[in-house]
């Protein structure tokens, strides 16, 4: 009877993930093989590839949406393996966030959406924040203003503009995520954005856009004519 798994050590050398990566780079490996390299070695009865296949069974989006906190079990992974995957995902998000720098003017507010998707789209709770810009539309700061429940965030306009004054910002791009995966704005989102825009005009801080990000994409209020 054939065993239902094979350890990496039992594989032919040229088929092992590490050796294949040496020949063709990380791009040559499957999702499961990449995870296997993060969590090896395996454990009794399961190779690291067996465990990795379980981890990615629901796809990479589900993987990114999990909370990777040591002490919170994820399948058969122990705390150290959970920490490795969580650290790798966070590094990926931070690298993606480097796509816009504070020295480059933001000519299109929606251009910052990819970095926001990488950082916030897969969070299990709504997070509301602002990207603050100077008079030349260069980013001076990015702030998380409020973290709410699974379905809503209660944000005070005062907090939005308090950070603008503290950071000497001339404009702000506000954003929040929808954990549901659907970035469509709610009536409350539209009403709150209108309030922010009016207050910003009175206070001398331009609200350039409101971006809603989710796993399926993003919505720009400016692009939709809602701002």
Structure in words:
- The chain is of the alpha+beta class.
- The chain is 37% helix and 16% strand.
- The chain has eight helices and five strands.
- The protein has helices at residues 17-24, 31-39, 48-55, 60-65, 79-97, 113-120, 157-166, 187-203; strands at 127-133, 139-147, 171-177, 206-214, 217-220.
- Helix 2 (31-39) packs across helix 3 (48-55) and helix 5 packs antiparallel against helix 6 (113-120).
- It is elongated and about 70 Å long.
Alpha-carbon Rg, integer: 22 Å
Q: Between the first and last Cα atoms, what is the distance in angstroms?
A: 66 Å
Q: State the strand order across the main sheet.
A: 2-1-3-4-5
How much of the sequence lies in strands comes to 15-25%
Q: Give helix and strand order, one letter per element, not per position.
A: HHHHHHEEHEHEE
- Count of runs of 4 or more consecutive helical residues: 8
Rounded mean pLDDT is 85
- Dominant shape: elongated
Question: Strand count, sense and closure of the main sheet?
Answer: 5 strands, mixed
Overall number of strands: 5
Helicity level, as a percent range?
25-40%
SSE class: alpha+beta
| Poorly predicted regions | none
